[in-house]
Amino acid sequence: MRLDSRHWRAAGCAAMGAVLVLLMAQPPVETLPTPTAIAVRTVSTRPDRVSGGDVLVEITPPVPDAADDLRVTVDGRDVSGVFRAGPNGSRWGLVTGLARGRNLLTVAGAPWQVADATLELTNYPITGPIVSGPPIAPFICQTAQFTLPGGSTLGQPLNADCAVRRRVQHVYLPRGAREFKVLPSRARLPADVGQTRTLTGVTVPFVVRVETGTMNRGIYQNVILHDPTTDPEPSPFAPPPAWNRRLIAVHGVGCPGGWYRQGGVMGVNPLNVQRLGEGYALFTNTLNHPTNSCNAFLAGETTMMGKEHFIETFGVPLFTVSMGASGGAYTSLQVADAFPGLVDGVIITATFPDALSIALAGLDAHLMRHYFATPAAGDLTDLQKLAITGYSGLTAFVDAANQAQRTDPVPGRHDVNGYNPAVWDASVPQRLRYNPRHSPAGARPTVFDAARNIYGIDPATGFARRPYDNIGVQFGLQALNDGVITLPQFLDLNERVGGYDADANHVDGRSTGDVDAIRRAYQSGLTLGANGGLASIPVFDAGGYNDTERYHYQWFHFAVRQRLLVQNGRADNHLMWRGAVPADESWALMEAWLTAIKTDTSLVSPYEKVVTNRPARAVDGCWPLAADAPVRFIAEPQTFSSRPDSECNRHLPSYSFVRQVAGGPLDANILKCQLKPIDPADYRTPLTEADLERLRGIFPGGVCDWSRPGVSQVAVVPWASFGPAPTNRIGASTN
After folding, report:
1. What ranges make up the beta strands (E) of 564-708?
2. Does 171 share its domain with 106?
């Protein structure tokens, strides 16, 4: 984004204009218009969401030589001394000592100023929250279980916010080794230290600074090449010289069990030998590991705070790329979409749109599994069951159905082989856990309750509102129209399928999703909208799936692309490689793409920069793995199909899911459908008047009209807040 500022001298002087063009760094920040041409902005984060009492600020005066005359105060306290020369006559300063809440930064003192320039800063404690709402309770501290390089732990927390003292260690990679060792001395390097050559052509000892601390009640780490024997202490004005100025946000995996705890592991090791050796820096937090915290909005807040701290420690990166697999894939997507500008690109594997999509698809499949076990479904063949569900085989279907367990708070319910409800980490005491008979006020282990600030609380139950809805859904409609099941089988299925109550018990009536919870899921990005930050950055889906056994199905990959298409009318920023993708090739391509975008100084839109700078080799394709042939790249558009209608689909067929067989869209993002009257033309099987009467009895309000947006389907609210931050507030007033 570019801003023009003009300054005119005071009355009586000859008119003179001065135009100042500012290239704004990510994430998006606010510049307060003033009567002067001075521009004041925060660099490390938004001014309304500062954390930890410090923030990096840039001041751009209209006359560079006059910058020394500036006097900068925060609520009357002089902080001019922290500012130093920056590029193009600007002044940069790390302002510290901010009070909790509102702080007013004022720039004054130059004789040519018409008026003071001011910027309001709102500071929040490093323990959070800023936008995620009231801290979830209970919350189990796990600093004593978190292992540092060298084998020691962080020890017991200092307070109820699970805080610990910040630690800085250095590790090194010995020659020929793949595991780091703790640096024994900061005064001299060991004889066996290896060397690395970075992307920028710098060869340095392979020594890494590891900073560990607590933030937003999670445990954070940032890692970067830094040799303490020769390099100065890092600062935003003196970054480590071996850093290639590229930053990676790392996310973990999983979801079940991800509630009510800090987490004792990251889920992914930030000490990535390959990327660190190339000069990248990485940062992460235990709350960016969904197995610790299955709440992508909280992960977004944590990423926001983590990147702010990184910039205030090391400086502004050229770009920030988010990466992850499985749970880390959907966290990367959701954070990038809901917090535009926080990351500049996403590279992911084993892709899902979001954790909610897994849960809702599981709830549909679990209903089918329940129905198939009834005597009424006894005449259905395995082929007919697969036609109703859409999956490649019964193993894949059952595994999908078992993912409903992440919505089930009741322990001990094993009604399907492999179904494991009420998943808990052992760190959460039994006495704190929900049980409808023994502990009805306990914490509930579901994806909904883990994000109850977003979904809202149902006053009737005291539990999180639930968005699952199957009103009007005609299960098995495509199987009927394809002639695989009969009309009586279709009618019986939809008559008996039922739904769930608040405790995930099967009930005879269908489930009505809470419209407030549905709206807030869209607004927050808990269901990926893809119309926020993702609309204008590179999104690289670099493979990883399993259609035949586990729930990493290919349809989830295509659902992400379809959401981009549906919401934005385009998806030229999305790249898909399927199969046995070589990680080095995909990473090098993403790095080249982002570097080209960030060094493009043209005045076109961010989306145009993404498309214009897309490398020639960044084309759709697949890497099929065959026992009798080497892995090779097949360049062709990737399409969703189980038929051998392309070379990639012949090697890598994609299968469907329950809601799509019922007529729903591939993007799977209509959580509650709008209804239409029953139309006999929708059925290839002729219907008698008795059949129509039965259908009207099954669907008294009508059936799903999938051609229309869903009920309460709205766009994601960029940089939303569920409290305490007041801007873009959801659940109160949305500004």
Report:
1. 574-579, 621-623, 634-635, 675-676, 703-704
2. no
Helix, strand, coil % in the chain, rounded to nearest 5: 25, 20, 55
- Cα(195)–Cα(149) distance, rounded to whole angstroms? 20
What is the extent of the structural domain holding 36?
A: 2-124
| Axis crossing angle, helix 296-314 with helix 327-338, rounded to the nearest 10 | 70
424 domain residue, yes or no: no
Q: Is 520 a member of any domain?
A: no
Place of tokens 């809901």: 338
Q: Where do we find the tokens 């309770």?
A: 137
Is residue 399 within 8 Å of residue 391, measured between CB atoms?
A: no
Residue 674 belongs to some domain of the structure: no
Residue ending a domain, among 661, 693, 711, is: 661
Task: Give strand pairing partners of 721.
Answer: 729
State the first-to-last Cα distance of the chain, in angstroms, to the nearest integer: 21
Say yes or no: 120 and 149 in one domain: no
Q: How many domains does the chain have?
A: 3
Same domain flag for 161 and 93: no
The per-residue pLDDT for range 603-619, each reduced to its tens digit, is 999 999 999 999 999 99
Q: What is the pTM of this model?
A: 0.93
Element (H, E) at 521: helix 515-524
15 and 89 belong to one structural domain: yes
Instruction: Give CA 126 to chain center in angstroms.
Output: 21
Q: Using alpha carbons, select from 309, 331, 311 the residue that is nearest to residue 322.
A: 331
Reported as a single tens digit per residue, the pLDDT across 201-254 is 999 999 999 999 999 999 999 999 999 999 999 999 999 999 999 999 999 999
